[in-house]
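Changelog-linked ticket: adenosine-5'-triphosphate example.
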Amino acid sequence: MPTINMPLMRFIERENRSSYWQVLLIATVSGIANSLLLGIINHAAEAVTQNADLTQYFLLYITAFVLFLYGQWYAFGQAIQMVEEAIFNTRSRLTRKVQQVELAFIETQGSNELYSRLTQSDTLISQSIPQIIGAFQMFALMVFSLLYLGYVSVASFVITLLAIGLGVVYFLMQSQAIRAALHTVKQKEESYFASISHLVNGFKEIKVNEQKAKDLLKGITSASHDAQLIKYEVGKLEATIWGFGRLFIYALLPIMVFILPNLLHEQTQDIFKIVATLLFLTGSVTALVNIIPILNRVNLAVEDVFALETTMDNAIAHSQVIAANTVNFQDFNTLSIDCMQFSYPSTTGAAFGVGPFNEKIQRGELLFIIGGNGSGKSTFLKLLTGLYYPQTGGLSVDDTPIDVGTYAAYRRLFSIIFTDFHLFDKFYGVPDVDVQKVNEWLEKMQMQHKVEYKNGGFTSTNLSTGQRKRLAFIAAMLEDRPILVMDEFAADQDPQFRQYFYETLLGEVKSMGKTIIAVTHDDHYFHVADRVWKMDEGRIEKHSLTQ
Ligand SMILES: Nc1ncnc2c1ncn2[C@@H]1O[C@H](COP(=O)(O)OP(=O)(O)OP(=O)(O)O)[C@@H](O)[C@H]1O
């Protein structure tokens, strides 16, 4: 089957097993049936003036009407099903791909853009379907009304075709400008959304600082104003197209009534038929012109989804990891880091780099990593946990070097609580949650009076940062992975809990056989660690054995 080269149609075709041509065919048949109604009524009206039998017209009218109604109902139903299936398939695939891309992709992509593309386009596509199917019917109605017009009067047909042709040429000339302007609107809207996220996320800061609020609002107003101006221009262009569309059709009516009969001496009853057909045509052309702005926006939304998927595909193709489930490192004894080096991609000047690292971590060790701000501790943890890939050197577990086929299995060694940790609403990835164990951990983390475990998650999430971190710790414990990695876990805890954390809890976790790697600034408690590594300018500078 041929393809309609329009992003929306490519989207539907790509995501469905069945072809959309059947739906379009039924929509077209329904449109033809609609135009037949006109012909039947016209001829029936003529038959009335001649006192002829109207039974056949009545039966034909009923048949055409049923065909029109059923076709419309069927086409709508099918189209909605196809589009929703396409959206479902795309959503499932894109969310799977988000999981496949690497951390570096998410860090560079910009969460606002990613979030808006993943969520907003679908709604727009879904909402536009009734109008789009309607447009196909209206197109069929227009074509068959035109043919009927040709049957009634060749001259009227030629004049109308010329008018519609001129309208199409005018539309094509304008549509490029509209699409370009809509692209700019999208960019302006994204910058507006980014400013809004500052407004919401930085609410506390701007609430206490009027000047900050004023400056931010100035930026928001400017981004919004820019978008408004371009949208206004687009709206004006679309209104002009809409106006021209109607102008062509409405100009035709007086031509047919006042000029044509005098020039070509058409029959009076034919003039009636021509005018009735033109009124039908007016309806279909108006509906088609009305759909243009919607189509423009939907096609842009679809192109957005395509572009996002292509970017993700490229990122996944460059990813070094393939999912291999056969390797199991859970019983490891030693993690080795050999000549490992990593640099962030440089946009301007020298980029920050870490390494080379040549270290070993033994199973069951409690290792602290210390160092000043920006010394590379978090970067090192991301490398160690397999979230970043080194440019040179690498990791091995016992004697097995970690490569593209084993990275996924390697990552399964770790539970991680980063400084910007995310507390999930449920214990995802823990198949059979042991409620007793959760309650024991709630007690150990001194959270039993604050939250409860219910329906797969914790009951209260209105907690302080320190308390939320304690829940993240419980989730990490339930994951039950051999290595626990923490980035400044105790920074948000009160002094009593901090002491309990270092002097009791870490020892307890260690006695469970877990290896603990923790970034910390709490020099009071360095003595509890087996080893302390100090980082400076991306290097592990000093190993101090404390025990
Ligand atoms: N995504 C990134 N892209 C480019 N550079 C980055 C990125 N993340 C961090 N850096 C740079 O790497 C350096 C080390 O950052 P890192 O977060 O590893 O330090 P840190 O020791 O954990 O600091 P802190 O104690 O403040 O958390 C910083 O100078 C930072 O500018």
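Closing comment: Example verified and attached. The chain has 14 helices and twelve strands. Residues 210-264 form the longest helix (55 residues).
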